[in-house]
Amino acid sequence: MNAPNPLVEEAIATLRAEIFRLQSSRNMMRDANAALSRKDYAALQRSGFSEEHIAELKIRETSGLKGFPDYAMRNNNSNIRYLKKRIAVLRSELGFPDSDMCIRNSRDQEVGIGDVRNSST
């Protein structure tokens, strides 16, 4: 194993923080779309949406569109996969095998890099 590189370790920590932010965003969009489909606008308020944002989401929903479109979810998931792969590369530079790599997702579940590698198919 290589000597610890503080810059690489800091980059990994930054990437993990970004993954957590993107996962939180994905969950928020998914939950908001579910609340909109149930017409549960109070749930949107409890989630921290402003009245203005809820009004915009209602307009999209009444037009037959999702509050948060599918492409936003796909782009978000793609970014998460990319960042996880980037962490795997950085960890390999530190000499850690991929099998040691686990990231906790926003639902506090461990997700190994092996789960990510073939997810683009």
What does this structure look like?
It is a single chain. This protein has helices at 6-38, 41-46, 51-62, 70-94, 114-117, and strands at residues 102-104, 110-112. The protein has one domain (6-117). It is elongated, with a radius of gyration of 18 Å. A hairpin with a 5-residue loop joins strand 1 (102-104) and strand 2. The chain is mainly α. Helices cover 66% and strands 5% of the residues. It has a two-stranded antiparallel sheet with strand order 1-2.
Chain-averaged pLDDT: 82
Sequence of strands across the biggest β-sheet? 1-2
Summing up helix and strand content along with how strands pair, one would put the structural category as mainly alpha
Task: Tell me the major beta sheet.
Answer: 2 strands, antiparallel
When the domains are counted, the total is: 1
Order of helices and strands: HHHHEEH
Unreliable segments of 5+ consecutive residues: 113-121
Ends distance: 32 Å
Beta percentage is under 5%
Number of β-strand runs:
2
Number of contiguous helices = 5
Radius of gyration, CA atoms, in whole angstroms:
18 Å
Overall outline: elongated
Q: Give the helix level as a range of percent.
A: 55-70%
